[in-house]
Amino acid sequence: GNANDESGNGNNGTVNGATLTTDRFGNSGKAYSFDGVNDYIDFGNLDYISTGTPNEYTVSLWINPSSLGNYPTNSMGSLLFGDEISSNNGVLMSLHNQFGFGIYTVGNAGFCNCFPTLNEWINYTITQKSTGIELYINGNYLGSLSNSINTETSEPTRIGYFYQLQTRAFDGKI
Fold this sequence. Notes:
Shape: globular
Low-confidence stretches: none
Order of helices and strands: EEEEEEEEEEEEEE
């Protein structure tokens, strides 16, 4: 296993502390385990929002949380995927112990109040279109999380740990 981009676009990640583990099918070395303290995978500055159709993208993650953490209500929770929210731009996918799965976009947050079962795999997919951001859970459409859209930043994209708020590390497998 590795953090290489299998699409051929060269968006390879650099693993920092996360360790290889079994995926949702029990295949060894096909997922990463994050310690909830400081593990992450860094992809550098990805221009995923402005490539292809501008301002449209999809991010899909299989996660298996060991805990939901303990975050205050004014927090976004633990980082699953995202880049720097610079001037309210960029993308954050997070998991909060009080609000469930959520995204942060252009100055506001959208949570689904849907919580994963601890130590079980679940798939979260967000799709941004010109009308906003939609959420799918295990392939089923849940609804819109926001009618705002994100724009590109020049900050690093990471999985598992938000570099500016080091108390927001994900604990589990991705």
